């Protein structure tokens, strides 16, 4: 069976609890000092989408060809205040793109949006000097694409859900940062939706943790909203792969099974779960490892061991629970030579040592799996290995409470997503009684620092980009907004 093709043509049954309709839910902070001004396209004809590709959820999108321009105007007067231009990605990006902004008539430059190696459903922004507000109100903005390939963005409101946060808009605010309330208003909504797989799975897990630990009903409703986006009326899984090609009723390898942990909690008898388990079995090596090819990855701690533990516990399947613990033991090799490695290849090669988000995958996978199974299985050895990994991560924490993208490199900028995930794992261990209370201040210090990275409308910025751009991009100062990072911050919030 091919590496990225182990769930296919799986007809999904009833969601049960997920099928009840939801009332409309606000997708924007109630902060009256912050507002979005939608930007309308003027006299622009988009090219056709390339054959074989698709836009998520059937939302409307437009494309810019290299060198092409589009003029947009605000649909209402921009108030005085801090100002950001925003646009969200509608097709997977595997190169670098720049959107140059200028006043539509006078050609005065306003800024450049830098978009590199991006997944879909991620917003990008650039701050604009508020001195230009009167002329933007009058002239509008001309956007010109500099890129070797086209750029696709969401461009019109959807008729079923409020997707305004993903459309081209100007964000106006009296503030430069947001509050925890802004974060929650944004996260507990459609706004936190990510591409299906590890990104969306991290978000769903964050929503579940807030629901289960804080009894937050909005979090449960948001889970339902997210699943409604990805399953059609016949309950088929409908989404696109990392090349924006339809991948309906299929799952892309081990990194993509994390969303089914949340699905299993809500609908444990769903038939697709049996297909997921079958897929793990077919990817299992002779020694029992479930991996892609010859690579042992930190992601597998969180995207395989954890959902395997959840399903095994719900089904009371002893073999599945034992297999979940074995997946962690097979990944002990990543905790080596006082480093937390992202990947280990069976020929003995390590890559991405001390990458913060890789550390988060390891620690979250261990802490979540232990928490699920500690009352039913013998986990003492795994707890010891988890604490060893925590000590390694803690030794590299910055003075401000965050962790650098490569934790051991002093000149590397922090990564808010990895920092949040590491801290969430630490508090999970403490709150479940298998990690010393002395570590709590480590996580609390991170929380205090993360609050400075909330945008006025509640997104999390300061996230290291997806590693599809390689080590060089990770070592650079390039940072983005990313909802999958919000998923890890939400898990930290839930554990506090």
TrEMBL record:
Top-level lineage group: Bacteria
Pfam families: Glyco_hydro_88
GO aspect biological process, one term: carbohydrate metabolic process
UniProt keyword terms in alphabetical order: Hydrolase
SUPFAM superfamilies: Six-hairpin glycosidases (SSF48208)
Gene3D superfamilies per record: 1.50.10.10
A GO molecular function held by the record: hydrolase activity
Name this polypeptide is given: Glucuronyl hydrolase
The organism of origin for this protein: Maribellus comscasis
Lineage: Bacteria, Pseudomonadati, Bacteroidota, Bacteroidia, Marinilabiliales
């Amino acid at each position: 069976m091919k590496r990225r093709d182990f769930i296919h043509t799986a007809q999904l049954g009833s969601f049960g609890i997920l099928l009840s309709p939801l009332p409309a839910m606000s997708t924007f902070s109630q902060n009256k000092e912050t507002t979005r001004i939608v930007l309308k396209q003027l006299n622009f004809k988009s090219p056709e989408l390339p054959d074989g590709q698709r836009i998520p959820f059937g939302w409307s999108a437009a494309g810019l060809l290299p060198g092409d321009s589009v003029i947009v105007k605000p649909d209402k007067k921009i108030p005085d205040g801090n100002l950001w231009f925003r646009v969200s990605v509608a097709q997977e990006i595997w190169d670098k793109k720049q959107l140059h902004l200028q006043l539509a008539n006078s050609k005065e430059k306003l800024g450049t949006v830098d978009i590199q190696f991006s997944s879909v459903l991620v917003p990008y922004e650039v701050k604009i000097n508020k001195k230009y507000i009167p002329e933007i109100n009058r002239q509008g903005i001309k956007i010109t694409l500099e890129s070797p390939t086209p750029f696709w963005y969401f461009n019109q409101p959807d008729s079923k859900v409020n997707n305004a946060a993903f459309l081209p808009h100007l964000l106006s605010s009296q503030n430069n940062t947001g509050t925890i309330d802004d974060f929650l208003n944004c996260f507990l909504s459609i706004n936190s939706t990510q591409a299906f797989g590890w990104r969306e799975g991290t978000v769903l897990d964050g929503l579940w943790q807030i629901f289960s630990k804080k009894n937050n009903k909005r979090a449960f409703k948001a889970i339902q909203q997210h699943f409604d986006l990805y399953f059609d009326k016949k309950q088929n899984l409908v989404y696109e792969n990392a090349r924006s090609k339809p991948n309906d009723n299929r799952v892309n390898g081990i990194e993509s099974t994390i969303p089914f942990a949340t699905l299993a909690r809500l609908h444990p008898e769903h038939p697709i779960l049996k297909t997921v388990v079958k897929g793990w079995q077919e990817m299992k090596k002779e020694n029992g490892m479930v991996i892609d090819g010859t690579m042992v990855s930190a992601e597998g701690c969180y995207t395989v061991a954890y959902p395997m533990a959840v399903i095994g516990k719900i089904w009371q399947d002893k073999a599945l629970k034992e297999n979940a613990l074995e997946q962690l033991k097979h990944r002990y090799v990543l905790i080596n030579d006082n480093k937390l490695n992202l990947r280990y290849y069976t020929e003995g090669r390590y890559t991405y040592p001390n990458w913060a988000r890789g550390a988060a995958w390891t620690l979250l996978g261990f802490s979540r799996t232990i928490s699920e199974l500690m009352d039913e299985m013998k986990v003492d050895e795994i707890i010891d290995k988890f604490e060893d990994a925590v000590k390694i991560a803690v030794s590299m924490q910055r003075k401000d409470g965050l962790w650098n993208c490569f934790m051991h490199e002093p000149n590397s900028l922090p990564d808010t997503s990895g920092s949040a995930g590491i801290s969430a794992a630490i508090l999970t261990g403490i709150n479940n009684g298998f990690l010393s209370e002395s570590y709590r201040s480590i996580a609390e210090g991170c929380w205090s620092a993360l609050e400075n990275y909330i945008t006025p409308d509640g997104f999390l910025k300061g996230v290291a980009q997806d590693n599809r751009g390689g080590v060089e991009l990770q070592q650079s100062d390039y940072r983005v907004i990313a909802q999958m990072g919000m998923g890890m911050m939400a898990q930290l919030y839930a554990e506090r």
